[in-house]
Amino acid sequence: MRKRGRLAIRKLKFTFQQDNDPNHTAKTTQEWLRDKSLNVLERPSHSPDLNPIKHLWKDLKIAVQQCSPSNLTELERICREQWEKLPKYRLDAVIAAKGASTKY
């Protein structure tokens, strides 16, 4: 059964995505990926373009601060309302650019 599983994995076509931060890329990992002939999508370390949620959190924080909630219940209500108002086009832009740089 193990043989069958290994054969199935070899036939799959996928791309492994990793952050090239030196803390996350051990030499042994790189060698293993090369030995297995896996497709690797390399990307810059801590790329904000590939983490668009950071931009959305910043936008939410600014919107909530402008509303000045006075208690936890109000904060939760405002967060929900403001989240629904946030523009979703940033996520679409990152997907369309296939992980490459965007204007955001």
UniProtKB/TrEMBL annotation:
Origin, by domain of life?
Answer: Eukaryota
Stretches assigned to the Tc1-like transposase DDE domain: 19-73
Q: A single GO molecular function, which one?
A: nucleic acid binding
Q: Could you list the residue ranges that cross the membrane?
A: none
Gene3D superfamilies of this UniProt entry? Answer: Ribonuclease H-like superfamily/Ribonuclease H
Protein name per the record: Tc1-like transposase DDE domain-containing protein
